[in-house]
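Reminder to self: keep the SMILES exactly as supplied, no canonicalising. Ligand is flavin-adenine dinucleotide.
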Amino acid sequence: MEQVDFIVVGAGIAGMSAAARLAGHGSVVVCEMEDAPGVHSSGRSAAFAHFDMDAPVVRALTAASMPFFEEPAAHIHPALFIALEGQEAALDRVEANYREWSATVERLSVAEARTLVPVLREGEGGIIGAVLDRAGRKLDAHAMLEGHRKSLSAAGGKLATGAAVTSLRREGGRWLVETAKGAWSARVVINAAGAWVDEVATMAGVTPIGISPLRRTVITFDAPEGLDVSAWPFTKTVGPGFYIEPEGRGRLLACPMDENPTEPCDAQPEEEDIALAAWRVEEATTLQIRRLASKWAGLRSFVPDRRPVAGFHPDAPGFFWLAGQGGFGLQTSPAMALAVEAVATGSEWPEELRAVGVDEAALSPERFASSM
Ligand SMILES: Cc1cc2nc3c(=O)[nH]c(=O)nc-3n(C[C@H](O)[C@H](O)[C@H](O)COP(=O)(O)OP(=O)(O)OC[C@H]3O[C@@H](n4cnc5c(N)ncnc54)[C@H](O)[C@@H]3O)c2cc1C
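Structure tokens returned for the bound complex:
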């Protein structure tokens, strides 16, 4: 059994971004059950960073992460938030949330919004107002993961793929991990297993945190013949509805923002959610979706208060939770990795997080101590 300083379970964006940081402090191994990083949630996301998020801590973590998003893992792309009938208050809320963190936000009339996305419908079922942020960030999950893999490897860390953790136990003050690709021991194990974090905890004899994986569906389809949609903003309703975003010149991605509770699994799109995606887009736009180019589903995993978790379990020494990234795991990952680095190595709390008002307690699993 090889001894290392940190074992990370899970090579999604959470595990890989944290591992890349920890590799500057000691030896790291990342154990991933699939043959490559990012096979589950991280590789199935819409990959856009924005502030239309309910929890203030999530918006603050997003703000702290923005300076870390650089080419080729991110580029500036506008984000348009549209209100359907009855969503006026939600539009005001989104605008206020944006104004806290972004100096590039503007309120648009329906006509102005339609100059950006000409297929938006006016009148019944259509939009009644919009907010635009010209400086949104389109992310590239694979480029982000690859950047972390390179940093990890340059610092001497190891990524073990095809290495499902099948046993995790504590002996002599160390965590012992067994996989088909090897066995490691470390004082600190980072549980970054996404939808599977409670399964990993149970394996370790640690009380689960109460993770809820929720399935979300995405479809892609061709834009109307001859229309170049590549400059269209990421366009999202401020309440229930949908979002669409360009996938190159002639293709659009759409999501009905569904949230269906499920077990941790290789999520697959269900027919009714695909139909819902198409229906919601067709209701609010003049687009007609005749044929899908592709479809997929992924899991967004939340803890009960829908805020992310980074910190040691209250009474399982060395067992670190990195969980509950929900629908914001990519856009908060740089800030979350800084938090992991500080807490797991006992270093000073990062200035980047202090500056946005996020302290260690806000992310700590101690907030669930009474149920753990
Ligand atoms: C449709 C959709 C759209 C989204 N849009 C956005 C967006 O626009 N912006 C944004 O920021 N976020 C978005 N998200 C959310 C984002 O994708 C997630 O928050 C993020 O990917 C979670 O990362 P993770 O590393 O925690 O999980 P994952 O990527 O699922 O990684 C967990 C890893 O753990 C591994 N694992 C599990 N059990 C074991 C075991 N026993 N042994 C070894 N390995 C194990 C799994 O194989 C997996 O690779 C979206 C998600 C979905 C589904």
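Points to follow up:
The two ends are 30 Å apart (CA to CA).
The chain has two domains: 2-42+141-211+305-371, 78-135+212-302.
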